[in-house]
Design a protein that fits this description.
The chain is mainly alpha-helical. Helix content is about 70%, strand content about 0%. The longest helix is centred in the middle third of the chain and has 28 residues.
Amino acid sequence: MMPPAEPAAPVIFTRAGVIRGARVCMPLLVGMTPFALVVGIAAQAQGLSLLECGLMSGMVYAGSAQLVALAAWGHPASLVGASLAAFIVNLRLALMGPVLAPWLDRLAGWRLWGSLFLMSDQNWALSVTDMNSGRRDAGFLFGSGAVMWLMWLCVTMIGHILGALVQPQPGHPLFFAALAVFVCMLVTIWRGRGDVLPWAVAGVIALALARLLPGTSWYIVGGALGGSLAGGLRDHLRRQTAP
């Protein structure tokens, strides 16, 4: 007779977890710095004041969404267009959050909503790795997010100040920093050859939509949904063929 399986350790949210998350995310701040500077420079180029740049970074806190919204910014600014662009880009978070459900489903109140607000691509990837390693302290997500949020707020405002001095032209290599951050992040979440299919599907769909619908952000949504569906189908087939 097989012995009963031991129950999984409960999810906790401790000060030690928050501090550990803040410490582990420190190396990522170096990689985020150029991205944050670019967002600040772009905000200044579009005519936002230093206060407006700070409010945007503190309340939106989404580099890719901020860049897309700034790209859609006009004179006069189209609030609906910029908001819709940011919403489309941030839809990916609806696909990312459920991955951390083993942690998030056991939080409530400010711990849950604070963790969700502070979740970004980088600390999400760190938290997924931490969760998959068997750790159960959800304070890690909050702590890493809080440090990265504060860094993002400060450096984007510094970028705004530098933007008035540098004033780079469109197409300047400096604006490649945003893409470079996402490319580097892929290294941390690569799990092996099984990821080739969903990643390839996402890439093909995104490239196709970018050509079919230029000047829009639908390629991000289409790529994310296509890649997610391909990954879900892959996992389903694996379960069906497993002995």
